Amino acid sequence: MSLVYFDSSALLSLCVSGPRTPLAQRLWIRADAAVTSHVALVQVPAALGQAHRRNLLTAAGLERALASWHDVRQAVYVIRASKELALRAGELVLNHDLRADDAWHLAGAQLALRDGGLAAVWDERLRAAALATGVRVCGQ
Length: 140
What we know:
The protein is of the alpha/beta class. The chain has 7 helices and 5 strands; from the N terminus they run E-H-H-E-H-H-E-H-H-E-H-E.
């Protein structure tokens, strides 16, 4: 497998066990390179913190998830914000039913996957927009 772009939900599947964890792990292991957007650096810990505050993760579970996130964060290539990427994300939110953070993800995926690869996107609106813009996705 070549390049795989991971949205924040897919990255979370690598940190906390869930229904899509086996798929996320297979994609992660088989990828020649894993890529995400800069927004994941905030979204993933935010989701973990929220899960802990809602008692969906114990203190020990949060600690394990954060340790996993640390390992993932060290291994994934992060596409940084740029003016060009921001302008593309702005175009995407005008034309698709996307939240701003997901527009950053889609703009990053389009950039990273322009020469091929696969996007692991678990968010349904992001998935629909990715498919509509020709991005090859895996999320089911």
